[in-house]
Amino acid sequence: MFALTSMLVVAAIPIYPERAPIQIVLGTTSLVVAAVVLACPWRSWPESRTLALVWPAFALLALSTWSSGSAALTGPFFVLCFAWLGLHHGTRQVFWCAALATAVYAAPHAVAGDVSQLVESIFTLVPVSVCVALLIHAHVRQLAEAREQMAFQATHDGMTHLPNRAESMQLLHAALSRGRRDKELVAVLYLDLDGFKVINDTMGHRAGDAVLRAVADRLRAEIRAGDIAGRLGGDEFVVVMESVTTEGVALEVAERITGAISEPIAVADDRVVRIGTSVGIRFNLDGSSSADVVLHEADLALYEAKKSGRGRVVVFGAAPDPSADPSPRKWKARWLCA
User: Fold this and answer.
1) Under CATH, what is the fold of the domain 165-315?
2) Residue from 157, 235, 292, 299 carrying the catalytic annotation
3) CB–CB of 325/270 below 8 Å?
4) Active site residue 182
5) Against a cut of 0.70, is the pTM above it?
6) Distances from the Cα of 221 to the Cαs of 145, 150, 195, 307, in angstroms?
7) What would the pLDDT profile of 224-263 be if each residue is shown by its tens digit?
């Protein structure tokens, strides 16, 4: 835009030869500013710094309009400047720059006493430019929202809005990498709902969907801040816990989850159902195992929980704990996973 402004000023020299020195200075300044803008990595600048580019742009456009004697010649460049504002900045910045542009752009005409150019710039050019900026900003915002929604749909389960299997595996891999780097304990809880298939088969998929959504909500409520809950598929879920101080912390979270899920769930037609969940836990301290291996071993622990009577919490590789209460009331056990 600065380079085009320079060409416009030079082209206007034959029209107003008496202003040739000023036009040459403006043309040279525009080329210098254009070179500086191209050389600087302004795309990586913060918003406040890139907004400063409008100051020389408006000033050069205003002086170019005065030297060329017509706002019609510089008007398209003025609109282009506001189009750039709408592309990279919000509505607040657009209106702020509109007030600035009105003052800067109208000042040379007011000093020269050119009323017609003054009216044309204030009541025609500025409103049109602002409208262009707002339309572009609205379109850019719609595209950004659509892109975010598509990214969310690609990485999250549509039913529960939890991370899907692929995203859960990515998050688990990242958690294990951080655990290996920081030498912290990571716990992986593999959950499978008890009695879900019966509800899905006898009451229909609508009731089953309601159960899955309720389970997802209860998972979010019971895990710690910073923990990750995801849906692996069907009635299987995973919880990834980082920075676990002791195994008891993970066991406590698992017990809260089993207790919350066992509470009544309202489904279609005001009917209430009850389900349970079995949990397999795999602890990983040094992050030496891959995400696939850790999840597989948590699944083995889950299999032991199912085999031992459901509604249990089983730790992979743990020796039997004589103090563990296997009664259904506590829904908790700690068994050896072979």
Assistant:
1) Alpha-Beta Plaits (3.30.70)
2) 235
3) no
4) no
5) no
6) 27, 26, 22, 28
7) 999 999 999 999 999 999 999 999 999 999 999 999 999 9
